[in-house]
Design a protein that fits this description.
By secondary structure, this protein is mainly α. Helix content is 73%, strand content 1%. It has a two-stranded antiparallel ribbon with strand order 1-2. The two termini are 29 Å apart.
Length: 436
């Protein structure tokens, strides 16, 4: 039987007999997926930069260019990944992606030519930077409605832990062995961490195991009907937009345009972090230390943002995140000591946590869960593409002017414009969900 586009099976007694809501198991697996995305993230790939270009006798420009090209290639696949997610479900997608991530890392261990590097980066970025995040956030949005923000915040522990742990471990293995062996270790570690939980624990939706989102028990038995109310007011108010229907709404385009600034600007700021702070008189050692604070601080920001996302309209929170990013960019000009550099990282982490967490929640709030993979796939395509371009304008303007000042002032326009798009991102007119 089906309800709201989700099927109910006849066998799920052990899940329904648990003393807690099974959605929290889904959150735990989503957190593991965020953690396991590390090989496709910049904070890990950057550790391989020096040993790979030294061993292969490549230029830094070539390595960076292949990374950007691979990231842009990844963006093109996100719509397809989203559609596949809607068709095959989270469990099958996570299992396949996990297997492919392991093989992609092993592929990187054998890189000797430029085309091999491009294929490797394209695969790693498609899976780690795009697909793992898309599947994980969609899983949570399907299993939760009322406390979607809090559940998203809990899963973000995985990403923060990944950012804190993997760079240290990767650097250790490279020094103890070499970069090729380290890539193999990374691939095997992803299999060990994520493959079994994905295969055994993930379920498509709460409805697929005879439950309702948030663990709420309905007053009516909906298994025998495709149209009866569920007894869960949040579910009954929810509408399931298809991608085609969502593309016809102003809300989708406002949200998409509002999501461009943070990926582009923050990628550029993070990529040039040491250099930007160095231009303000901060030592490379101190700059690297402040960068290490970003993961824990973003975790705190994500938890707070998750609580806020369950209580306040998402478009105002998105606008607030854009405003905080503007403050962070202005603060760069004031940096002259270590404590000011730390404040800069705190402000930046607050902006990223607020925008990312709210962005995850608001797509499901606006367009429902039935076709969320396809809709989020479209949004992720935009975000990944602009993230790939982030380092370029900062580098070009610096080479032209010898300073990052002009880049900061020019690119400050992006979050300001995104702030306006966020405010205009009203819920679709026929969406009656009052929580958004």
């Amino acid at each position: 039987m089906k309800y709201k586009g989700f099927s109910f099976p006849d066998t799920s007694n052990w899940i329904k007999s648990l003393s807690f809501y099974y959605g929290w198991v889904i959150v735990a697996v989503a957190g593991l997926a965020h953690f396991s995305s590390a090989p496709g993230q910049t904070y890990v790939s950057s550790i391989f930069l020096e040993p790979m270009i030294e061993d292969l006798n490549w230029s830094r420009t070539l390595f960076s260019g292949m990374y950007t090209a691979g990231s842009l290639t990844a963006a093109l696949f996100m719509v397809l990944v989203g559609k596949a997610l809607d068709r095959f479900g989270s469990r099958k997608m996570l299992v396949v992606l996990c297997v492919l991530m392991g093989f992609s890392c092993i592929w990187m261990s054998g890189v000797n030519t430029e085309w091999q590097l491009l294929i490797g980066f394209a695969a790693l970025r498609t899976i780690g930077q795009g697909s793992f995040g898309l599947v994980s956030s969609t899983m949570i949005s399907i299993w939760f409605i009322r406390i979607r923000g809090r559940a998203t915040a809990v899963a973000s522990f995985g990403g923060a832990a990944s950012m804190a742990i993997f760079p240290v471990i990767v650097h250790f293995f490279i020094t103890q062995f070499d970069w090729r062996v380290t890539w193999v270790i990374l691939g095997v570690s992803v299999w060990c961490i994520l493959l079994i939980p994905s295969a055994l624990l993930v379920r498509r939706s709460p409805e697929s195991v005879g439950l309702l989102p948030d663990g709420v028990v309905g007053d009516q038995d909906i298994k025998g009907s495709t149209s009866a109310p569920s007894g869960n007011s949040e579910v009954d108010k929810e509408l399931g937009y298809s991608l085609g229907e969502a593309l016809k709404t102003r809300a989708l385009w406002m949200l998409a345009l509002s999501s461009l600034a943070v990926p582009l600007v923050m990628t550029g700021l993070m990529f040039h972090h040491v250099s930007i702070l160095g231009a303000q008189g901060i030592s490379p050692q101190m700059a690297a230390a402040t960068l290490g604070l970003f993961g824990p601080l973003m975790l705190i920001s994500s938890v707070i943002s998750g609580l806020l996302a369950d209580r306040f309209p998402g478009r105002y929170l998105l606008a607030g995140g854009q405003a905080i990013l503007v403050v962070a960019m202005i603060w760069v000009f004031a940096i002259a000591s270590s404590w000011q550099a730390i404040v800069y990282v705190v402000i930046s982490a607050a902006a990223v946590g607020l925008v990312n967490t709210t962005g995850t929640v608001i797509w499901a709030n606006y367009f429902g869960r039935a076709h969320l993979g396809s809709i989020r796939g479209f949004a992720t395509t935009v975000m990944v593409a602009f993230s790939a371009l982030g380092a370029l304008p900062f580098g070009l303007i610096y080479d032209w002017t010898g300073s990052y000042d002009m880049a900061l002032w020019i690119l400050m326009a992006l979050p300001l414009v995104a702030l306006l798009f966020s405010l205009f991102a009203l819920p679709p007119k026929n969406n009656s969900n009052k929580s958004i």
